[in-house]
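To assess whether ligand presence alters the predicted conformation, the chain was also submitted together with fe (ii) ion. Input:
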Amino acid sequence: MATPRPLTQPLRQYRSIFAQYAPPSTSNASAARARRFISSTSSSSSSPPPPPSPHAQQQQQQQQQPKQKKPLTPAQQSLLSSALRVNQAGELAATLIYTAQTPPVVAREPHLRPLMKHMHDQEASHLHTFNTLLARHRVRPTALYPLWSVLATGLGWTTGLLGREAAMACTEAVETEIGGHYNGQIRALLEMVGEWEREGYEVGAEFRDLIATLRRIRDEELEHLDHAVEHDAQKAEPHWLLTGVIRTGCRGAIWVSERV
Ligand SMILES: [Fe+2]
Ligand SMILES: [Fe+2]
């Protein structure tokens, strides 16, 4: 029979620790408890984690502080004021066009009454939205409000008397310009939001609401454009001249209303 080898010094130390924390009849559970004790004492003696770097501290402080809103520059204030002003003028004109078109169009084609009412009511709702925004932000309306009112009513009556195709061609032309106009505004506002976010500034809920409102109205204008095309706008004679004149007029009115 082989004689047991004498224990080395480190093993003797472990034996004495086991003997202290485990009963003489050493079970697996007791040994596990003892091992946990050894590992806990060894880990508690390790050095504390290093302090965070100055850069990490700065990041942590920035995350803890509430974000600030960046004040609008004069150029941004001017952009927003002219955007609200021109939108209100455009929605007024659209409301008046449908108001003037509806009686002659519906007199000849009564089945178009629900569609004309639907488009008019949406325009009236858009106008109400921009009236509210102008009052809230103290933006003055365009000085040419009376002139646009007369021209829009005249355009509505004329195209309505020319018939369904001409009335729909008018809608097609107006909504093509207005849809592109809203898209340009949404793009400009999203660029401002992106710049603020990159610089770590807060983008207020009101600003995000304005972008959402413009997107909703833009979609409704493009829906009107679809309705017009579905109802034979492109059969108007001469379509190219009618839409060309109206689109040029819209672009001129937008340009002037942004400034005056
Ligand atoms: Fe509208
Ligand atoms: Fe519209």
